[in-house]
Amino acid sequence: MSMKKIYSVLVENRSGVLSKVAGLFARRCFNIDSLAVGETDSRDVSCMTIVSSGDARTLEQIEKQLNKKLDVIKVKTFTQDKSVSREMMLVKVKYNKNNRKEIMEICDIQKATIVDMSKTVLTILICDEPEKVQLLLESLKVTSIVEVARTGTLALSKCADS
């Protein structure tokens, strides 16, 4: 049975680390569904948020292999129900007087924002749970999608009450 897991991997912020981690996945034929990397509050440390899918054994192996890497400081894993996750997407769509109102209604319902426009093209921004980002993309397929740019999933574990 295929499951998804989110890996929050703190790594040393230096060149080649991303390549080493990606190489680990490639060599072992592990799939990366999503990958986002950025500096943390320390310039010396980056956080890689990796979403991967597979059976329980595969997901366990990914965690073990990540922990063996010298550049890896810490690996945290969590499932979607134990984390807060967000993804951002920019999508350009063609519009005309016939579908403009429908596109604006879709954006309004799905809490997306029009951030740029010309006479024939709108650029729409959404920052939400990955499933809701995908839902917006599906909803906009009734229009003519010109271009899509998406971040990977970013996630943190849910806050625990003290």
Topology, element by element:
Layout: E1 3-12, H1 17-27, E2 34-39, E3 45-54, H2 56-68, E4 72-78, E5 83-94, H3 100-109, E6 113-117, E7 121-128, H4 130-140, E8 144-150, E9 154-157
Antiparallel strand pairs: 1-3, 1-4, 2-3, 5-7, 5-8, 5-9, 6-7
Could you explain how this protein is built, in words?
The chain is an alpha+beta fold. The protein folds into two domains: 3-78, ACT domain (Alpha-Beta Plaits, 2-Layer Sandwich); 83-157, Alpha-Beta Plaits (2-Layer Sandwich), CATH 3.30.70.1150. Helices cover 28% and strands 43% of the residues. The protein has four helices and nine strands, in the order βαββαββαββαββ. It has helices at residues 17-27, 56-68, 100-109, 130-140, and strands at residues 3-12, 34-39, 45-54, 72-78, 83-94, 113-117, 121-128, 144-150, 154-157. Strands 5, 6, 7, 8 and 9 form a five-stranded antiparallel beta sheet that branches. β2 and β3 (45-54) form a beta hairpin. The two termini are 35 Å apart. The model has no long low-confidence stretch (mean pLDDT 93).
